[in-house]
C-alpha cells in the first residue's frame, strides 16, 4: 500500500494520543516517518506511528553527544544546516546539527559556506595572535 501523494493531509494515529483523535501531517513528513520506520501505512490517507520519538532537539543533541559540530565545544542548541528561511518543509534529524549558542547565533540564517569561511577566518586570527 502507498500513501496518496495528492491528499491535502495525512491522518496520523498513535496509541499515545491522549484525546484519541488522529493528528494531521503533510504527505512528505508522513512518507519520511514511514521510510524511517517510525510509522506504518494503514490506508492511503493514514499512517499509524509505531515509535514514540523524543523531540527533535533531544535526538540531535544525543546523536552529536552535545558537541558543537562547528567549533567542537559543548553545544546545547540545534542549528539548521540549511536555514529554515530557505525551505518551507518540516525539519528532520539530517537537516540539523548540535551547535553551541555562540556558533548558532553567529551562523544565524547564513548559508553554510559563508559561515564556515567566517569561522575559519576567526580561528586563523586567534591562532596567529597566540603564536605572536
UniProtKB/TrEMBL annotation:
SMART domains associated with the record: HNHc (SM00507)
InterPro entries found in the cross-reference section: HNH, HNH_nuc, NA-targeting_endonuclease
Keywords, comma-separated and alphabetical: Endonuclease, Hydrolase, Nuclease
Keyword Chloroplast belongs to the record: no
HNH nuclease domain sequence ranges: 55-105
GO molecular function, one term: zinc ion binding
Keyword Hydrolase: yes
Name assigned to this protein: HNH endonuclease
Origin species: Metabacillus arenae
